[in-house]
Fold this protein.
Amino acid sequence: MSIHPLSRPDTPASSPETPPRSTMDRVFASLRARPGVSAAGAIVLLVTVVGLGFSAVTSPAEAVTAQWHAPEGAAVTPTAAPAEPTADPAANAISMSATGDIIMGDAPQDLPPNGGKGYFDKIKPLLPADLVMGNLEQPITDETGTGKCPAPKPGEPVNCHQFRVPPSYAKHLVDAGFDLLNTANNHSRDYGSTGFTNTQKALDAAGLKHTGATNQITVVDVKGVKVAVLGFSSYAGNNSLLNLTSAKKVVAKAAEQADLVVVQVHMGAEGAEKSHVRPGTENFLGENRGNPHAFSRAVIDAGADLIIGHGPHVVRGMEFYKGRLIAYSLGNFAGGGQLRSEGRLGWGGVLKVTLNKDGSFVSGQFQSTIFSGAHGVPQPDTKDRALGLITQMTKDDFGKSGAVLSADGAISSPAT
Ligand SMILES: [Zn+2]
């Protein structure tokens, strides 16, 4: 049975120092998973905005009913005289959920049974929110003839990895409850620009929103609140997290078009030992994987209200900056038999966040998940291992700016 890497860099947007493939491959080899090894972890981060919830305006997909906080006092008081307009804070709040990396399999040889039907059933109860998002870490396409990997030579180790699932798999994302998928990452162009375009078409056909292409600002109207979602990575064809000037510019543009701005970003080095966030640029395999600390602050300064990070394949801590939550990494959500699952590589979770229309933080929740089995199927983790790791990393890395995480996963901002 072949082994697979956690992920591999694809086309660095600006990485003149990219090492020879042989070097990267050696490193990747150390990160590989063996499909069939049980127990993989996944992080499902659901960001939920509380309140009346949103209905996706630009999306054919219907918004999911808010499951966080039912607005208090929703009942009308019929006996009251025409009341003066009173602001109901919950009325302008929305719930959002988000997950880390999603891989459902690798066509044609390594796909889950029954055509992938029910792949997300175990985790589905954790996902509902007014806007449900995930990081799609693979193309959804038929074979394009333009895969990035050369044909393997008999007797030689497979050193290049590309993942795809057929277009029919888009419906599994719909079944899970996803509304919007991020395509800014190192695998979205595994099958070239044709594969990338095919992915967008497959998502469109399924009624799913997507974001991640350069200058793509996806605006979703969620129950009257306009939410702009953008995707960033260090790879060509996506908004670049390496150029803070351009990043701030596109975020500021998004802020002009919407009430809330959500940034999806594939940032940071990869691997089990990469759980920490330190100020400074992170390099991996000779590539500049960005400065998560500086990037997150820059885009919040430019108008972002929530930062959803992924890419390291492990969860990282969370902090607040100017009242905005930064989730540095949601880790892996679904492995598809392609991602390693041992130890913390298999731990994941669901982050839910509720934001007011003005971007202020209302509440948050993290629920741990894990993926396992030959096909990396995600499920709830009753041992809350990802929550424990996030809590520890948050304490280690952020001090007073760190998010306050309770034992049950509730998230709140630190006292100021
Ligand atoms: Zn990746």
Summary: The chain has one domain: 21-69+90-149+157-412. The first strand starts at residue 40 and ends at 42. The domain at 21-69+90-149+157-412 is CATH 3.60.21.10 (Purple Acid Phosphatase; chain A, domain 2). The pocket of zinc ion is lined by residues 7, 137, 185-187, 266, 311 (CB under 6 Å).
